[in-house]
Write a structure and sequence with these properties.
Blueprint: E1 20-26, E2 29-30, E3 34-36, H1 48-51, E4 55-57, E5 60-64, E6 70-73, H2 75-88, H3 96-109, E7 122-132, E8 143-153, E9 164-168, H4 186-190, H5 193-201, E10 206-210, E11 218-221, E12 224-230, E13 235-239, H6 248-261, E14 264-268, E15 278-285, E16 289-298, E17 301-304, H7 313-326, E18 337-339
Parallel strand pairs: 9-10, 9-16, 13-14
Antiparallel strand pairs: 1-2, 1-3, 1-8, 4-7, 5-6, 5-7, 6-18, 7-8, 10-11, 11-12, 12-13, 12-15, 15-16, 16-17
Helix pairs in contact: 2-3
């Protein structure tokens, strides 16, 4: 099948592909699930996802290697994180082994839409678990839908691997410390829309959120995690907080920085007033991959890191290692890569 897409100029936008995977939970069990050609879900108007936000989702990617193979990056970690999100919202978790299998089915069925090697584009997958059925009271749903759909995407931040400016959203919180911050749920993202709109209108890539109690410590960078690298390149730090989403990309970076580059890695509180300790900084996540942070503006003061126009050498080294693994050019730690067979 020939697909007419400009692979080199993809944005991060929805595109309807031929196949998605759908499974239903009812009467205490998940059905067998199936691939579907229908992009629409039928929901009762009383569904708890519509009224009370009882739903969670994931994001992961499929990559085309130089040899033409297709592979996934740590999908078991996404399966486990969705399991944890489901438990937080009192939803029946979708079995983790079936999650990985469903993702593989969607990728294989839409394999013509996995971008060619060398374009930098990927096939983005969006698994989601939502509470449905007639249920107007504030209580868990009696029925659930698990759905996985996909689309080819380019970089999340415009320009890709280029330094991006961010602004601190000190009048906004993304999530509460003991709320749903560690779960990947829609409400956390709805809470970010207002600050994100302000940031974009004022020329920034996105907003940075501080901790919701003292407003002193960095939490997240828009929909990504923050990391900072010491000026001598020997230490990499990421924020620690009960309201930060545990980024699979972040933990992969921590592992690679320590195991392959001998860096000291640490999850700790990072005060917004203590940015001078870092020579480089970045935002990391499945969508963002690694986006260098050019500067952070806080209370009218702009703190510039390595450069406003060039990527720092340590950030670039980690980025090359991570994406090299994802695209099959660098050996991966055991269990990080899952091949997708295509008939």
């Amino acid at each position: 099948m020939s697909v007419d897409i400009d692979w080199n100029n993809l944005g991060f936008d929805y595109m309807q592909l031929p196949y998605r995977y759908v499974a239903h939970w009812k009467d205490g069990a998940w059905d067998e699930g199936t691939l579907s050609t229908d992009p629409n879900l039928s929901l009762n108007e009383g569904s708890p996802i519509l009224h009370y936000g009882q739903g969670a989702f994931e994001g992961l990617k499929a990559y085309r290697t130089k040899s033409g193979k297709i592979q996934l990056f740590r999908p078991d970690q996404n399966a486990h994180r969705l399991h944890n999100s489901a438990e937080k919202l009192l939803m029946p978790p979708f079995p983790e082994d079936r999650f990985v299998d469903a993702v593989k089915q969607v990728v294989a069925a839409n394999h013509d839409y996995v971008p060619p090697y060398g374009t930098g584009a990927t096939l983005y997958l969006r698994p989601m678990l939502i509470g449905v059925g007639p249920n107007i009271g504030v209580a868990p749903a009696k029925e659930y839908i698990f759905d996985v759909f996909a689309m080819p995407v380019g970089p999340y931040f415009k320009g890709g691997m280029v330094p991006t400016k961010f602004v601190v959203a000190d009048q906004h919180d993304r999530a509460a410390h003991y709320g749903t911050g560690q779960a990947k749920v829609g409400g956390n993202y709805a809470a970010s829309l207002q600050a994100g709109k302000f940031a974009h209108e004022h020329g920034y890539g996105d907003a940075i959120y501080l901790d919701p109690i003292e407003h002193k410590y960095i939490e997240e960078v828009g929909s990504a995690n923050f990391f900072g690298i010491s000026k001598d390149g020997k230490t990499l730090k990421t924020p620690k907080s009960p309201s930060i989403l545990p980024s699979i990309t972040k933990y992969s970076i921590l592992t690679l920085a320590h195991d392959r580059f001998g860096m000291k890695t640490e999850e700790t509180k990072i005060a917004i007033t203590d940015l001078d300790q870092f020579g480089e900084a970045g935002a990391c996540g499945t969508a963002a991959v690694i986006t260098p942070i050019a500067s952070i503006t806080y209370n009218g003061h702009e703190h510039v890191f390595y450069s406003e126009t060039e990527v720092g050498p340590y950030t670039k080294k980690i980025y090359d290692e991570l994406t090299g693994i994802q695209f099959g050019d660098v050996p991966a730690p055991e269990g990080w890569i899952v091949d997708v067979p295509v008939d």
